[in-house]
Write a structure and sequence with these properties.
Blueprint lengths: L11 E5 L2 H4 L16 E2 L8 E3 L16 H15 L3 E5 L2 H4 L10 H16 L3 E7 L5 H7 L7 H15 L6 E5 L11 H5 L9 E2 L5 H25 L4 E7 L2 E4 L4 H24 L4 H10 L7 H9 L4 E5 L3 E4 L23 E2 L5 E2 L1 H15 L3 E5 L17 H19 L4 E4 L22 E3 L11 E3 L1 H11 L6
Parallel strand pairs: 1-4, 1-15, 4-5, 5-6, 6-8, 8-10, 9-11, 10-14, 14-15
Antiparallel strand pairs: 2-3, 3-7, 12-13, 16-17
The chain binds 6-O-phosphono-beta-D-glucopyranose (BG6).
6-O-phosphono-beta-D-glucopyranose binds next to loops.
Protein name: 6-phospho-beta-glucosidase
Family: Belongs to the glycosyl hydrolase 1 family.
Pfam families: Glyco_hydro_1
Length: about 475
């Protein structure tokens, strides 16, 4: 019987986090200063900002995060209570190499992740580890603007080799670089690639020109491919995946120009990185795109061989919304801090932060990816950022979040029935954490509420939201009881 009815038996249900948004302990255990440690909180309308120096009395959200560094046992016990089969996390580069330049790794940092992996193992939770999630040693920013320089590849490889060897028998699933393709979006030059644009203001502008960004993307793709090859040498059982923010673009209407524009966007933002990581070479449209834009992307002869050799074992994506593309002027712009350009889609609901939820778009996207690449897929980020209210009795009634996740689970099941080989689902911020784009605490995604506000005040106590009990039921029934 070739017909797939629902989620496979060994489906990896879980949740996702990133070190820089939840660990805290920013200067403990020998940790160095990371790119995120320099960031100030933004707000619903202001993206998070970059400070020139760290000052007393100023709130930097990553410094305490939600204090996973000290509370990991309690948090992992809560994940286990929900029935997690997997847990996505990242390793803070600066815990292992505080400035990036040391020749020996920091043992205390390595030990911390040993403890975390051992704790997960106790409950049979499979770690899915992002090698680098929007975080680099700040020292390397000052030295050569991280991925602006080819040298960064060697620093990344040193870090990667250290953690591959150390956790060889504890971690099987690895993601090379978080949302690698978002580097191409001007707004994430600093966050995604650690590039400074030379601005000397107290609060620095994080925008970087696109040619520099596509060059950075190339270096990152080379580094990712090298990591895949090395990882397979160290442990042939490693499964090493790509990680892309899947930004799904629809044509605004049936005007063929809109259809072509949406396709072009999909290629320039998503497929360009995906094709290199999965197929091992740049697609034709990439060269045309570079040429038409006048970008001179420097590639060494050896790069082509490296890319060809280091193709990934699986694909992982984040998926939050879809966007529409139109050649017509005067349509409503997508609002809030929606990180992609596009027009408002009148058929979709919009979150408090202006993100347009589109569960069916996830089914479309998974089919789109599967049809192109035919290798296993993980959805390693998805969720609804919303304001929650902690009630006096410690409950949080987040029916809006349950609805969002339920609708996406339904569509993932549809995709599986369409024949897509989906192997994992780890919703973003399974425990409330600091927002990546705004640095706020108020933009919550979790099944677990953390008592902490936008200024960094609170008890850090954890509370189970209604979605906690709901998700537990979903996992227990393998996606049947929704
Ligand atoms: C992804 C990032 O882009 O989206 C995460 O990988 C981020 O780091 C997540 O937190 C959600 O975005 P935000 O801005 O709502 O936190």
């Amino acid at each position: 019987d070739m017909l797939t009815k629902g989620f496979p038996k060994d489906f990896l249900w879980g949740g996702a986090t990133a070190a820089n948004q939840f660990e805290g302990g920013w200067n403990e255990g020998g940790k160095g200063i990371s790119t995120t440690d320099m960031c100030l909180a933004g707000s619903r309308t202001i993206p998070k900002r970059l400070a020139k120096e760290i000052k007393e009395g100023v709130y930097y959200p990553s410094h305490n995060g939600i204090d996973f560094y000290h509370r990991y046992k309690e948090d992992i016990a809560l994940f286990a209570e929900m029935g997690f089969k997997s847990f996505r996390m990242s390793i803070a580069w600066t815990r292992i190499y505080p400035t990036g330049e040391e020749s020996e790794p920091n043992e205390e940092g390595l030990k911390f992740y040993d403890d975390v992996f051992d704790e997960l193992q106790k409950y049979g939770i499979e770690p899915i580890v992002t090698i680098s999630h929007y975080e680099y040693p700040y020292h390397l920013v000052e030295k050569f603007s991280c991925w602006k320089s080819r040298e960064m590849i060697d620093y990344y490889m040193k870090f990667t080799e250290t953690i591959f060897r150390r956790y060889k028998n504890k971690v099987k699933y690895w993601l090379t670089l978080n949302e690698i393709n978002t580097v191409a979006l001007a707004t994430s030059g600093y966050i995604g690639a650690g590039i400074l644009n030379g601005d000397e203001d107290e609060v620095m502008d994080m925008k970087v020109d696109p040619e520099t960004l596509y060059q950075a993307l190339h270096y990152m793709l080379v580094a990712s491919a090298k990591a895949v090859t090395l990882g397979h040498e160290i442990n042939p059982d490693f499964k090493i995946g790509s990680m892309e923010a899947y930004l799904t673009y629809y044509p605004y209407n049936c005007n063929p120009d809109d259809v072509l524009l949406a396709q072009k966007k999909d290629r320039e933002v998503n497929l360009i990185a995906g094709d290199v990581q999965i197929r091992g070479s740049y697609p034709g449209f990439a060269y045309r795109f570079f040429e038409e834009k006048g970008y001179d992307i420097k590639m060494e002869e050896e790069d082509f061989e490296i890319l060809k050799k280091g193709t990934v074992d699986f694909i992982s994506i984040s998926y939050y919304f879809s966007a529409t593309m139109s050649t017509q002027e005067g349509l409503g712009e997508a609002s809030g801090n929606m990180i992609v350009e596009g027009n408002v889609n009148p058929y979709l609901e919009t979150s408090e932060w202006g993100w347009q939820s589109d569960p069916k778009g996830l089914r479309w996207t998974l089919n789109h990816i599967w049809d192109r690449y035919q290798i296993p897929i993980m959805v390693v980020e998805n969720g609804l950022g919303a304001t929650d209210k902690l009630e006096a009795d410690g409950s949080v009634h987040d029916d809006y979040r349950i609805k969002y996740i339920r609708d996406h689970v339904i569509q993932m099941k549809e995709a599986i029935r369409d024949g897509v080989n989906l192997i994992a689902y780890t919703p973003w911020g399974c425990i409330d954490l600091i927002s990546g784009s705004t640095g706020e605490m108020d933009k919550r995604y979790g099944f677990i509420y953390v008592d902490l506000d936008n200024q960094g005040n609170g008890s850090f106590d954890r509370y189970k939201k209604d979605s906690f009990y709901w998700y537990k039921k979903v996992i227990a029934s393998n996606g049947e009881d929704l």
